[in-house]
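Running low. Got one?
___
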Amino acid sequence: MVLAAVTLVLADQLHLRGWRAEVRDSNPVVRTQTLYTVGSERESRLVEDVHTVLMNEQDREALGAAGYATMRMGDPRGVELLCRRADEAPDDHVRAKLIMFAARLSNRNAQLEEWLVRGTQTSQPWQRAGSAAGLLLIGDLEGGRILLDVARGPDPLIRGFAIEKLRWIEGPMAETIGRPIRDWPAPQTCPDARWESLLTFWEEHATEGLLKDLLTRLSRSDSTWFELDRLIHARHRAAGWLK
């Protein structure tokens, strides 16, 4: 029993060391894949390594993965780092994600509101889209109105981003009050009645209370199931090490 426990501890340390090396690997594909894995596992023992990558990463996809891992680890120190990197060019989908990750990690911190509002007023379309989604994630209804405007813009990629975030927030809000939205517009679709129905719902039914209730439900997790899930992951990993 003692030998098995020692073996598992050593295997865990070796595995952790491997991840630590991979998040600093010279190949950005390796860094990206490992950062997403570390984030999905919420491996908080690597938080300093992930923050270092987030501060210095130049590859855009790896930067997005470092942002995701930072958000998942839940360390509030990551909010400032995410904001700092999101303020940097270029204006692309990674910037929009970093803004959203900062908003989610902030746990609805109203201190981010001024920064997010400035982002919605810029001429940079991805920054504007990410900032609008970020406002929603801290409980500001104005983010939904701006995101609806963004969703009607000329770029199908940005429209797709906006629609995805609206489905994640506006969709459950509509279901909560018994008005489910069943016909969502596609990113390639020009504005039509479906777009107008989204705007009508937001203007007539969206309230601050409804939004905040939804955000609470989305962020709430049962600690028992969370720990059980971690144990299952650990068991599978240990089984793989001992093969």
User: Anything to note?
Assistant: The chain has a mean pLDDT of 85. Residues 91-227 form one domain. The first helix runs from residue 2 to 22. The two ends are 17 Å apart (CA to CA).
